[in-house]
Design brief:
With about 80 residues, this protein is an alpha+beta fold. It has two helices and three strands, in the order αβββα. Strand 2 and strand 3 form a beta hairpin. Helix 1 runs parallel beside helix 2. The chain is globular, with a radius of gyration of 12 Å.
């Protein structure tokens, strides 16, 4: 079932990844409307925008999010 909205439960799961990677919660923007495909991009402000995937179950998408964040953090 597609994700209709990003709620506190999803944000907390994302924050757990940010904390594990040592990324500041203040350095990200998480829109409350999920999209397909989800992803991460650097905004002109330098903050990371995390666009939550709407079609893939969150549990399956979170490892991909972590890979994307590691890639951006390491400049790869």
């Amino acid at each position: 079932m597609p994700l209709a909205a990003v709620r506190l439960a999803e944000i907390e799961r994302i924050f757990a990844i940010l904390d594990r990677l040592g990324l500041s919660r203040e350095a990200v923007v998480i829109p409350l409307r999920p999209v397909h495909p989800g992803g991460v991009r650097v905004l002109p402000s330098g903050k990371l925008e995390i666009r939550v995937e709407s079609e893939t179950p969150l549990e399956d998408w979170l490892p991909e999010l972590e890979r994307l964040l590691v890639t951006i953090r390491t400049g790869g």
